[in-house]
Amino acid sequence: MSVTLYAYWRSSASWRVRIGLHLKGVPHRIEPVHLVRDGGEQHGEAHRARNPMAQVPVLAVPDGAGGVHLLTQSMAILDWLDATWPTPALYPADPWERARAIELAEIVNAGTQPLQNLGILQAIEGLGGDKLAWGRDVIAKGLAAVQARAQGASGAFLVGDAVSVADLCLVPQLYNARRFGVDLQPLSALVEIEARCAEIPAFKAAHPDLQPDAQV
Ligand SMILES: N[C@@H](CCC(=O)N[C@@H](CS)C(=O)NCC(=O)O)C(=O)O
C-alpha cells in the first residue's frame, strides 16, 4: 500500500508526519499544497474538500475499492501509522512513559503550534499586531514548558532513550523557533536532543529542504 501526504515543505505538522512515514518505511508520495502562493492553495475548493480546516497535512489512504480514505490532524495520522506499522514504535510501551510522550507532544501540538500558525499570524497582522514578536513569545513559552516538563523523563531523546512522538513534534518546532528568532540558549537540552535526531536517516529525509516543493 502506498499513501499520499498532502503537505507543505515548511509546515511543521506535515513534517511530523513525514518523519513518521520515513521512520516506519511506509511507501508514500508527497502532494504539495502551497500555503502562500496566490493566497494559499489550502483555501481552494479542492483542498477544503480534503480538509475543511484548510490546513495540511492530509493523508490519503487507498480504500481497496479504487478510492481513498482521508485523514487529517497530524496526531491522528501518527496514531494510525503507529497502529498499522508498529515498528519502530512512536509511543513508549510503558503506560506512564507513553502518557509523558503525549504530554510533551501536546505542549507543541495543542499549546504552541496553533498559536503561531499561518492563519493566526495573518490575523494578528490584520489587527495591526507584531506577528514576529507574537510568534517568538508563544514559541519560547511552549518550548520552555517542553524542556521543563521533560526533566526526569529524558534520556537520549525527550522520553527515555528511544525516539517518540514527542521528538517528532520537537524538531519542527525548533526549526520554527529559529525562523522567529527565539533565543535557544536557555533551551540547550532540547537543542541537544534535536542534534541527536538530526543524525537519524528518517529525520534527515523529512527535512523541509529535501521536499519536492522546497524553495531553498
Ligand atoms: N492540528 C493540525 C494543525 C495543522 C496546521 O496548523 N497546519 C498548518 C501548517 S503547519 C496549515 O496548514 N496552515 C495553513 C493556514 O493557516 O492557512 C495538525 O496537527 O495537523
How would you portray this structure in words?
This protein folds into 2 domains: 3-87, Glutaredoxin (3-Layer(aba) Sandwich); 95-202, Glutathione S-transferase Yfyf (Class Pi), Chain A, domain 2 (Up-down Bundle), CATH 1.20.1050.10. It contains 9 helices and 4 strands; from the N terminus they run E-H-E-H-E-E-H-H-H-H-H-H-H. It has 216 residues and is of the alpha+beta class. Helices cover 49% and strands 9% of the residues. The mean pLDDT is 98. The radius of gyration is 17 Å and the shape is globular. The longest helix is centred in the middle third of the chain and has 20 residues, at 131-150. Strand 3 (58-62) and strand 4 (68-72) form a beta hairpin. Strands 2-1-3-4 form a 4-stranded mixed beta sheet, with helices on one face. It has helices at residues 12-24, 45-50, 74-84, 95-109, 118-126, 131-150, 165-179, 188-198, 201-205; strands at residues 3-7, 28-32, 58-62, 68-72. Helix 1 (12-24) packs parallel to helix 3 (74-84) and helix 4 runs antiparallel to helix 6 (131-150). Residues 11-13, 35, 40, 42, 54-57, 73-75, 109, 117-119 line the site of glutathione.
